[in-house]
Amino acid sequence: MSQKLANYVIFQRKIAADYRDEIINKDEFLIYTWLRLNADPYGISVTSLSSLGQDLFGKEKTENSINKLLLSLKRKKFLFYKKRTGSRGSFRIHFGGFILPTKAITSLDKLFEEEEKANSMQKNDPEELKLGQNSSSAKQNLNSAETIIKSMTSKYRTISRSRAHNNETDKDKENNK
């Protein structure tokens, strides 16, 4: 009678060695192992900063400190996730070294290359390249337009003063009764 294999995850021994060699600290190791254990068979874990805090640290760590730990792991290329703004909501974290059902092993290299390519494309924005040296003059034009708008609003501003008792414009207090 054949027995079905239990649900399991294979870990690289490199992770334990990196922890022993102090490449990653205890909190990073804890987050990494927790996320990896909760990943799907394709090496993707869906989580949020608040759920990581509740599951692992209780009220010990803030979402900001958990985010710093994740950024540190990403910088060291232990995991990958897309750039995101804010700390709310769930996001996908990718892991390398997962044996896929197709027997291929996942790698994070391609994801990091795509992100670097996207960053370099943003730096070399075509609009900025067209402007070239004229970009500073465009900023100066914007600044001069802002000063014109401010001067016009201060020039034509109407100050509405109310007529009430003990108002500085109220000179005839006896007649207002």
CATH class of the domain at 13-106: Mainly Alpha
Helix count equals: 7
Indicate the percent of residues in helices. 40-55%
The helix/strand order is: HHEHHEEHHH
Work out the strand percent.
5-15%
Number of beta strands: 3
* Average pLDDT over all residues: 79
Cα radius of gyration in angstroms = 29 Å
Query: Stretches where pLDDT falls below 50 for ≥5 residues?
Result: none
Helix and strand content put the structural class at mainly alpha
Tell me about the largest β-sheet.
3 strands, antiparallel
The geometry reads as: elongated
Which architecture name of the domain at 13-106 does CATH use? Orthogonal Bundle
Tags for this entry?
single chain; three-stranded antiparallel sheet; elongated; mainly alpha; 177 residues; Arc Repressor Mutant, subunit A
Question: Which helices and strands occur, and which strands form pairs?
Answer:
Blueprint: H1 13-20, H2 26-37, E1 44-47, H3 49-57, H4 63-75, E2 79-80, E3 91-95, H5 109-123, H6 126-131, H7 135-155
Helix pairs in contact: 2-4, 3-4
Describe this structure as you would to a colleague.
The chain has a three-stranded antiparallel beta sheet with strand order 1-3-2. It has a domain at 13-106: Orthogonal Bundle (Arc Repressor Mutant, subunit A), CATH 1.10.10.10. The mean pLDDT is 79. Helix 2 crosses helix 4 (63-75). It starts with 12 loop residues before the first helix and ends in a 22-residue tail after the last helix. The chain has seven helices and three strands; from the N terminus they run ααβααββααα. By secondary structure, it is mostly helical.
